[in-house]
Design goal:
Strand content: 25-35%
Bound molecules: coenzyme A
CATH architecture: 3-Layer(aba) Sandwich
Order of helices and strands: EHHHEEEHEHEE
Shape: globular
CATH topology: Aminopeptidase
Number of domains: 1
Radius of gyration: 15 Å
Strand order of the largest sheet: 1-2-3-4-5-7-6
Number of strands: 7
């Protein structure tokens, strides 16, 4: 898709943002996180979510949970029609800035072994594999990844 990435803004996500995408969450993003789960996440004091917007719509979001100086990357999701345009990169850059600002030392995540695009994105930002959970998902293993932040 041809659009001007410099016009994309990244902000802290709030409930209004979630409401704006509630009717298309399952179809245009991905179906593994429901509205109710995300609503709980947004109201948790240890969770930070970022949202990527054009001037007309929300095109992605990503969030993490912190526990002392560690964090867990909970998800990063780009609207299907905006994938492969650099929005995942933009969200990840901003997530890492938020983590640095909060003096987080280590970030963990888990990702399905067959989710090649996500694994590439994580590796690009320096995440490395630290473990494997066999048959964790319905049809594939989970890879556990970690990143140390300096
Ligand atoms: C993973 C995801 C967030 C990537 O977002 P995106 O906006 O398409 O990614 P970008 O265009 O910014 O690309 C960033 C990097 O991701 C990787 N990547 C993205 N799409 C890829 C693909 N189809 N195949 C391989 N690598 C890919 C590449 O390393 C790419 O870096 P490059 O542009 O330097 O080659 C997106 O595919 C998505 O929303 N997937 C569904 C949700 C999901 O599975 N999230 C992760 C688990 S919580």
């Amino acid at each position: 898709m041809d659009f001007d990435k410099s016009k994309v803004t990244i902000n802290i996500m709030n409930l209004n943002d979630l409401d704006q995408i509630s009717d298309c969450l399952q179809n245009e993003f991905d179906d593994f996180w429901t509205y109710d789960i995300l609503k709980d996440e947004l109201s948790s004091k240890n969770s930070i979510y970022l949202v990527a917007k054009t001037d007309t719509q929300i095109i992605g979001f990503a969030g993490f949970k912190t526990i002392f100086d560690e964090a867990e990357l909970m998800n990063i999701i780009v609207r299907k029609s905006f994938r492969n345009c650099g929005i995942g990169n933009l969200l990840m850059e901003n997530i890492l800035l938020e983590l640095k600002n909060r003096k987080i030392a280590t970030v963990h995540l888990e990702v399905a072994k067959n989710n090649i695009s996500a694994i590439h994105l994580y590796q690009k930002f320096g995440f490395y594999e630290v473990g494997l959970r066999k048959n964790y998902y319905k049809d594939t293993d989970a890879i556990l990844m970690e990143l140390t932040i300096n």
